[in-house]
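Reposting from the mailing list since nobody answered there.

I have sequence plus structure tokens for a pair of proteins and want to know whether others read the tokens the same way I do. The first protein:
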Amino acid sequence: MTPILRNTVLVIDDDPDCRDLIEALAQIRSVPVLQAHDCGEGLRVLEREHRRIKIVLLDYFMPGMEPAKCVASIVARAGTAIPVVLITAAVNATARAAELNVSRCLSKPFDIAALETLLTETPRSDQCSILKSQF
């Protein structure tokens, strides 16, 4: 049996422009991307594709499920094997990530180099850092 390569990024964001931007940049780097418009859809994609997903990029402000419940549901399905990175336009991204027990975050608007790092590397689950925007 051929092992499945864990090389795919799951982007959960209600903003289709944001999802498309991330996917366009990922395509340049030959990184497959799965998109979901809300946490419920993201959880279904994660359930179906979890063996391929290396990282989840999760928006903070989305309709539907509360952020804490969303993260808890993702972690319950993925465990620590798939890191969750908060992507947010919130004023204090670090505080939002900390309240969700998420160790990494990326501020919107994105610093392209920081986004490329997330797309091409799988962050360690114990790594605590914030990737700040240059804008």
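The second protein, same order (residues first, tokens after):
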Amino acid sequence: MRLLLNWVLSGIAVWIVAHVVPGVYVNGPIAALIAALVIALAAPRLGENWFRAAERRFTRFARRRTLSIITVGLLALVGRAALLPLIPVPEPGAHSRQKSFARAARIPPMNTLEDPVLISNAGTNPQQVTAMPISPARAAGMP
């Protein structure tokens, strides 16, 4: 099972390299799997020295616990800052979830500016305020 997973991951890596590196062409994922098999059979120790050196460096880095923790934390913050133009911080609002659910269901939101609403429990916590449509009798001032 482990060899099969390793082979599939190698095929995916060959396919990605074919899309990134100019001059390397692969005609789909099956051809990438075949190329990974051929490379594994022809040169089974390809890149062994490079991976051994990289493993030594990462091991030395991982042994410094404080530096590792700070680096991972900073990497998360820098990664989030880099993604802010693509995925901005959501604006808080009472109707943000309602609008997203309405968009997903393709129905209009319940409380738009055109719909008059009666706010009960006024002066309490805004999270507990209920909104109900105004009846015609209440709109006319009748109790």
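Reply #1 (J.P.):
I read it the same way you do. Helices lie at 2-20, 29-42, 48-63, 65-83, 96-105, 136-139.
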